[in-house]
Design brief:
The structure holds 2 protein chains of 2 kinds. Helix content of chain A is 36%, strand content 26%. Chain A has helices spanning 43-50, 73-79, 96-104, 111-124, 140-152, 170-185, 197-203, 221-225, 228-235; strands at 3-14, 17-28, 32-36, 58-63, 66-67, 81-83, 158-162, 189-193, 206-211, 214-219. In chain A, the strands form 2 sheets. In chain A, strands 6-7-8-3-9-10 form a 6-stranded mixed sheet, sandwiched between helices. In chain A, helix 6 links the parallel strand 7 (158-162) and strand 8. Chain A starts with a strand and ends in a 6-residue tail after the last helix. The mean pLDDT of chain A is 90. Chain B is mostly helical. Chain B is globular. Classes of the chains: A alpha/beta, B mainly alpha.
Chain lengths: 241, 371
């Protein structure tokens, strides 16, 4: 197995605050890496450093062996690394299919081809019946699916999902879980930020746990779930009776 | 509440925003009909109105590319309008360069200027971008005003004459009277509106609209923000400059306070789009008609008499002349407030709403028979 994404000693400072400090891990091609941690642990900041929204203060990010530091988000996307947003960002005044077409246009100049790709991706997330609806009018569950379809249309090799299940009901979450597993079967590498522990345990091949910007633990879901520090970070220190 | 209605029709195919022959034919018919106007009337006041409408359409359609599609509300487009006017007029007066070359150079100048302005202002978002665009345009207005050796400052440029354009051995266009300008302005308006159509139906338009809706999302979908905003601004600047040049040649006199005016050019261009319907092809056309008719009526209500809408002694004319003639900016302001409150998608949005309701009512009337 080869690492498609390598995070090497990445730190990100905002003034004196270290949002990420010295985080390192590798993501194997074709695997699902779970990224967990309490609120404010620096998960989204790490995504922003990886995808070019912030330059890392220290350290480097390698995607397929290429250094990503200093690249703009659009360049990162074209190299094959795409991300979704924790707070969904539909292009509200465009229709659902037009939203996905914007993603597809990263790989083609033809609107016809883009429309075909877009419809195909909408079928993948089972939203092809909604193609003509305005994106701004969708309920949250469908917005999340639209976000995934749109980002898939850019034909990524590595997908970073930032809490795609946040705010969804159990049935909708299950649909997303099945979608993520289906994408894995198709060979897509994914890094998943998620607060739903059951979901992340089921999905992930490996998990990295962040706390206060530092990497607390890394390992298989079982190892991380039983890691003393992880339990402490989520539930507090054990109290001696 | 919408009830799930079993439909006998096939599931709706993905909406295509493509080319439709009837729409194109309708457009051609409208253009031909408008082009016949000077053959039907020689009234200068009426032709003047048409020319002003065409120029306003060109300006509105030009602004629509950057403001309507790409969502970057520039309130400094007078910079490009004035740049087009000044380049053309100065080249004609100082170097006797015929204006058909001058307009091209004016557009080129405006595009170069737009690249510089874009490089400065596109780092800013939202209200900060708006303020910066105003500031840059005002700087250019003041620079033109005070750089007297070159621009003649507040004295302005009075055109001594436009050389005739020899199109072929038999056909020579002499730029006297309103008629030649009617066709030049009409042609420019058609080009500007067509440019909007092209933008809306290509990848460029999708990218512009993605930037308008959400810059961060657009960025993450592989869109080079600076590049695409600059392209939108360049297209917009080129058409604005052409409109400025034609305006200068038509009016035969420009000074910095006319062509670099914040309320009468920069704001006017924004209002045309907001009132008509922002980010649509037809919106700037509708907005231009409304704004020009309103503006001309407030400034010189006598045209209504000359055209024959009102009688000679109409009290309306007297009222407007006495009470409203200097209040046109106030009236624009009220109009914008009304549009934002009651028709956020502009007049075109209201018309589409009516059209949709009519369609639904017709469908409802037919339903009992078909089911």
């Amino acid at each position: 197995m080869t690492a498609i994404l390598q995070i090497k000693h990445v730190s990100k400072f905002f003034g004196g605050l270290a949002a990420n400090s010295d985080v390192s891990f590798d993501v194997e091609a074709g695997s699902i890496m779970g990224l967990i941690g309490p609120n404010g642990a620096g998960k989204t900041t790490l995504f922003n450093c990886i995808t070019g929204y912030y330059p890392p203060s220290k350290g480097e990010v390698l995607f397929k062996g290429v250094r990503m530091n200093g690249l703009q988000p659009n360049q990162v996307c074209r190299l094959g690394m795409a991300r979704t947003w924790q707070k969904v960002r539909p292009l509200a005044k465009l229709s659902v299919v037009d939203n996905v077409m914007v993603g597809a246009l990263a790989r083609t100049n033809s609107l016809r081809v883009a429309r075909e790709v877009a419809m195909e991706q909408l079928r993948v997330v089972r939203m092809d019946q909604k193609a003509g609806a305005l994106a701004g009018g969708l309920p949250i569950g469908e917005r999340k699916k639209l976000e995934v379809a749109r980002v898939l249309a850019t034909r990524p090799e590595l997908l970073l999902l930032d809490e795609v299940m946040g705010g969804l009901n159990p049935a909708e979450s299950e649909e997303i879980i099945q979608l993520i597993l289906e994408l894995k079967r198709l060979g897509l590498t994914q890094v998943v930020i998620e607060h739903d522990m059951k979901a992340i345990m089921r999905l992930s091949d490996r998990i990295v746990c962040l706390n206060s910007g530092e990497k607390l633990a890394e390992g298989t879901p079982h190892e991380v779930a039983h890691h003393k520090d992880v339990v402490a970070a989520y539930l507090g220190e054990a109290v001696d009776a | 509440m919408r009830l799930p209605m079993p439909s006998l029709r096939r599931p709706r195919p993905a909406p295509t925003r493509g080319f439709s022959t009837p729409a194109l034919l309708a457009w051609l018919a409208v253009i031909v009909a408008v082009a016949l106007v000077p053959q039907l009337t020689r009234k200068p006041s009426l032709l003047h109105l048409w020319i002003m409408v065409f120029l306003a359409i060109s300006q509105g359609a030009a602004w629509n590319v950057i403001g309507g599609y790409a969502g970057q509300y520039s309130v400094g487009h007078a910079a490009y309008f004035g740049m087009g006017a000044y380049t053309t007029m100065l080249l004609l007066e100082l170097a006797q360069l015929p204006p058909w070359w001058g307009i091209g150079l004016g557009m080129l100048n405006a595009v170069l200027l737009s690249l510089v302005i874009g490089a400065i202002t596109f780092r800013l978002r939202g209200p900060y971008f708006v303020l910066a665009s105003i500031a840059v345009a005002e700087i250019i207005r003041l620079a033109t005003l005070y750089w007297k050796d070159f621009t003649r400052g507040a004295e302005g440029i009075l055109l001594s004459g436009i050389p005739p354009l020899q199109l072929s051995e038999t056909l020579t266009v002499r730029f006297v009277g309103k008629q030649p300008f009617f066709y030049v302005a009409l042609g420019l308006a058609v080009l500007a509106v067509s440019a909007n159509w092209v933008v809306q139906h290509t990848k460029l338009g999708y990218y512009f609209q993605a930037i308008r809706e959400d810059q961060d999302a657009a960025h993450s979908l592989g869109i080079n923000l600076t590049l695409h905003k600059s392209v939108a601004l360049a297209i917009s600047a080129a058409f604005t400059a052409a409109a400025g040049a034609v305006f200068g040649l038509y009016v035969r006199f420009i000074d910095p306070n006319i062509v670099f005016s914040l309320p009468d050019v920069s704001v006017q261009m924004v209002l045309i789009c907001i009132i008509g319907g922002i980010g649509t092809i037809l919106g700037p056309v509708i907005g231009a008609v409304v704004m020009v008719l309103l503006g001309e009526t407030l400034r010189n209500p006598k045209w209504l008499v000359q055209v024959g809408v009102l009688g000679d002694e109409s009290p309306v004319v007297a009222f407007i002349e006495q009470r409203l003639s200097n209040a046109h900016v106030l009236v624009y302001g009220l109009l914008v407030v009304l549009v934002i409150l009651f028709a956020p998608d502009g007049i075109l949005g209201v018309l589409r709403g009516w059209w949709g309701r009519l369609g639904r009512r017709a469908a409802a009337a037919q339903r009992p028979e078909t089911t």
